[in-house]
UniProtKB/TrEMBL annotation:
It comes from the Bacteria. This is Prenyltransferase. Keywords: Membrane, Transmembrane, Transmembrane helix. The chain crosses the membrane at residues 7-27, 33-53, 74-93, 99-116, 128-149, 161-180, 201-219, 225-242, 249-271.
Length: 272
């Protein structure tokens, strides 16, 4: 039992779960915008996300040369494998996709590390975190697959980008509610500024355009509407039951599973 718990913690804290969520959103893009499956984009999204998240979480450990326990050694080894996988898959991307991917990675790096003396990283710029993360997720899961397939960005793609951007903001706000007691007040997260109750109402309001954007597509698929409605209800329930005393797994596993759940719903309504 202890071994299973250790493996599960490595899966969660090694960012494999969040990588799988991004991978699921790439598959959702393929389905929604009728793109062929591209192994290079899928592997880059998964490995790049895993490496980026671990880099953000653990760069201070390396910078301050802190001793590594066995748990961190395993995570660092897996992160090195993810970095290698991201580099190899990067070589198989189209040139324009590579340039875009580097731009998103650069934004991630600025988010974590201050590159100039006497400056803060973007993560410490109050209120900006939520938009950076949402932009990166939407860009990696919508823009990169389209660019690599040499498909023009249509109105439907813009709508999906907006929908994806809103989804990630909704998920982040749930994280911010759970992390309220631990976050530095300087970060000025949404719950810190307007309170938990109003943050929940904001989240529920954001779910309305997230769902109704589907009606503006060139072709409205009733099956996708069913999947999106279930997604909105699920995100709403996680929002309603979120509070700062919740166990960390509430967000680190369950909330981050929502994109995977969404993909499962789409498979269910389309192929069963």
């Amino acid at each position: 039992m202890k071994t299973l718990k250790r493996l599960f913690n490595i899966y969660i804290y090694g960012s494999m779960h969040v990588g799988l969520s991004v991978f699921a959103l790439v598959l959702m893009t393929n389905h929604m915008l009728y793109l062929p499956f591209n192994p290079a984009v899928a592997v880059f999204a998964f490995c790049g996300t895993m490496f980026s998240y671990n880099f953000m979480k653990y760069e201070s450990v390396i910078r301050h040369k802190k001793p590594l326990n066995n748990h961190l050694k395993v995570i660092f080894s897996l992160t090195a494998v993810a970095f290698l996988g991201a580099c190899i898959s990067f070589l198989f991307l189209e040139r324009v996709t590579q340039i875009t991917a580097v731009a998103f990675f650069g934004l991630t790096a600025l988010y974590t590390v201050p590159f100039f003396p006497n400056t803060k990283n973007l993560r410490n710029w109050s209120g900006i975190k939520i938009y950076i993360v949402a932009l990166c997720w939407a860009g990696i899961t919508i823009v990169l697959p389209l660019m690599d397939a040499n498909v023009p960005i249509t109105t439907d793609a813009y709508l999906k980008f907006g929908q994806r951007f809103l989804l990630v903001i909704v998920l982040i706000l749930i994280f911010e509610i759970i992390d309220l007691s631990e976050d530095d007040p300087f970060l000025k997260t949404v719950p810190q500024q307007i309170g938990v109750k109003r943050t929940k109402w904001l989240n529920l309001c954001l779910l309305v355009p997230l769902f109704f954007l589907e009606f503006f597509k060139s072709t409205v698929d009733p099956r996708q509407l069913v999947a999106n409605f279930c997604l909105a209800v699920t995100a709403a329930l996680f929002t309603i039951y979120a509070h700062p005393n919740r166990n960390k797994y509430y967000t680190l596993f369950w909330v981050e599973s929502i994109p995977i759940f969404w993909l499962g719903l789409v498979i269910l309504v389309n192929y069963l």
